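Cytochrome
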Amino acid sequence: MTDPRLAHATEFGRMYSRSLSQPPLVPSITTVIAQEAQDMTGWSGHMAATELINDTRLSSALGSPNDLRSLARHAAAAAERFRDAAAARGDRVHQYAEQVALSVLGHSADPGAARAVLAEHGEVRFAERFDHWWEQYQVTPIAAEVTVWNDAVGYAGTLDLVAEIGGRTCILDFKTKGLGRDGRAKPLRNSVVMQLVAGMRAEEMLVDPASGAWEPWPYRGDEGELPLLMAVAISEAEVVSVQANAEGLRAHWRKFWALRQVWEHSRAVAEQGHALRTLGPPPAAAEAV
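Tokens:
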């Protein structure tokens, strides 16, 4: 995950402020989407079991309960380690994509340095696939890593790229994906549509984080043609581009709105402190005992 300057890690998830001198006020787009529960217990269990089976120390630990408990604790954290490693890899790939876009826009950027970081981690094929996609789709960037704000609903977020592709204005979100058993990029989740439509429905875009200067967001589609919402899965083997179905955008927007209400009420409940308190018997019952 990228780290925009106005984003803050809080006890209520990732939140955004209006300027560098102000406190966080609204949740991020991804924090809102995360209010929808995802059951990962099966995957976590599979990761733990696989980690334990493949641990070379297992055979020598079979006669030692202490050693087995140590291996079990290590295996139990396998899903967490995998998640953290995937997030770090995604940050490196996003950094490269951002540097490519900024360099085309004429901003201070160093795609070569970002590519070198990928190479250090054995991930240069992500950059190669991205470069091929960039040329194939003839991407003309308009803005990269754009922080946007919606005051009416109360959220903010940072969009990976706004670009012109095939004569259409596009809002793009990049996802770094591993490979499935078939050697192809793993499929994108449908929740990316909520992320894209929330970005499109922003009201303002950040101009200067220090002063807190914002200007109207021009890509809402209120007048004329809606922007094309694209999710781009970047893997070592291929880059897969998908388009959000325009007919379903209203439903995804309503779902996002509902999840924003869930976040608000969850925060309100948490701020009330303990929801339950100990209750003793009534005085008469206590005296009878």
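Strands lie at 7-10, 13-16, 26-27, 140-150, 155-165, 168-176, 204-208, 213-216, 228-234, 239-243.
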